[in-house]
């Protein structure tokens, strides 16, 4: 199982994660003249994004995208793009190019195809990835019991973005979603999973021992994603 690194409080935790992402993005800009970062939405990443935004790392050479998104316009409070624009793409990081996963006025599958194309144009791998995890064990929009789950977790496909239908009969997710697939994470140089709280720690420990075909955390570990798990009680 992946080691869990613990930090005493949210400030130390967010600073440690932001420093790792900054280091990988700066190294990629120096080595390749460009870099690609992908991050999550949700309630967890804001303090990390606020710190990362201040890094002096040549943001005009960096493309920023999402690991997942709801199929909603950016005006929606549920939009992960809105969080990225409001918190990460500020200060020095405002110079970065944003690649949204959602496209307005098309189906979720068409939006996914457009995002897959835009991401492939940005590069053949992600230089730094931040992940969050829901208390049901989902990362990106890889939801337990979703009909797209097994495809998203298939390690041998090419890196892409898939549309995820909303769950039936109250199952998650309540809205259509878009998600990068496991092969994008396999190809990444660095993947940091930021966890807060005792519940998420125990969910991670349980999921890490699970079935790689149906449990995203187990799939990442089995596929040898370069995963760093960084936790604070919060
Ligand atoms: O639905 C989502 O949830 C997860 C976890 O969110 P959090 O609020 O528990 O931090 C997030 O990683 C994902 O990007 C988001 O779309």
TrEMBL record:
SUPFAM superfamilies: NagB/RpiA/CoA transferase-like (SSF100950). InterPro entries: 6-phosphogluconolactonase_DevB, 6PGL, Glc/Gal-6P_isomerase, NagB/RpiA_transferase-like. Its EC number is 3.1.1.31. GO terms for molecular function: 6-phosphogluconolactonase activity. Pathway: Carbohydrate degradation; pentose phosphate pathway; D-ribulose 5-phosphate from D-glucose 6-phosphate (oxidative stage): step 2/3. It holds the Pfam family Glucosamine_iso. Transmembrane segments: none annotated. GO terms for biological process: carbohydrate metabolic process; pentose-phosphate shunt. Residues 8-221 form the Glucosamine/galactosamine-6-phosphate isomerase domain. It is an enzyme of class 3 (hydrolase). It catalyses: 6-phospho-D-glucono-1,5-lactone + H2O = 6-phospho-D-gluconate + H(+). Coiled coil: none annotated. Keywords: Hydrolase. Belongs to the glucosamine/galactosamine-6-phosphate isomerase family. 6-phosphogluconolactonase subfamily. Hydrolysis of 6-phosphogluconolactone to 6-phosphogluconate. This is 6-phosphogluconolactonase. It comes from Brevundimonas subvibrioides. The lineage of its organism: Bacteria, Pseudomonadati, Pseudomonadota, Alphaproteobacteria, Caulobacterales.
